[in-house]
Specification:
The chain is mainly alpha-helical. It has one domain (2-143). It has helices at residues 2-15, 37-51, 58-65, 69-82, 90-110, 116-130, 136-147, and strands spanning 19-25, 28-33. The relative contact order is 0.19.
Length: 148
């Protein structure tokens, strides 16, 4: 199970490096990876604020930066697994839930410019959410917590 946890968290980290958005621009295509989505969104918001087209506050940008919590949690789990001091199972689910919510947020706000990296992130993050159910020891703990 430790190998599965390690592979799923490494998969989540790799999927954040893959292209999430593919924006056609004149004769070329600009790709934006999962890690760059918050920063590119912030740059666009600053440009729109400067031009006076729309006012976007920092509170509205906080939602976009929260998506970076998923790879940070995954990095912590990978480090703890490599040090042979694994974190609790709920870190897997928490990283997965944050990644799923991030993917859904990007999918609802970006239209038809979504690339394959977002779909891979969504798949890996759903597996992370379900990963405690794949281990028999953790399954007993999850079922035991639900019965109390």
């Amino acid at each position: 199970m430790k190998n599965l946890r390690l592979f799923l968290h490494l998969g989540l980290l790799v999927s954040f490096v893959l292209p999430w958005l593919k924006i056609p621009l004149f004769f070329t295509t600009v790709t934006i990876t999962g890690f760059l989505v918050p920063y590119k969104t912030r740059n666009l918001a600053n440009e729109l604020n400067d031009l006076g087209i729309i006012t976007i506050s920092n509170d509205q940008m906080l939602q976009v930066y929260l998506m970076l919590l998923a790879p940070i949690l995954s990095m912590l789990v990978v480090i703890s697994l490599l040090r042979k001091r694994p974190l609790e199972w709920y870190f897997d689910s928490l990283a997965g839930v944050i990644a799923v919510m991030s993917c859904l947020y990007v999918m609802t706000n970006s239209g038809n410019i979504i690339s394959f990296g977002l779909y891979i992130t969504l798949l890996v993050s759903m597996l992370l959410v379900a990963s405690p159910l794949l281990d028999k020891n953790q399954k007993k703990a999850v079922v035991g917590m639900a019965e109390k």
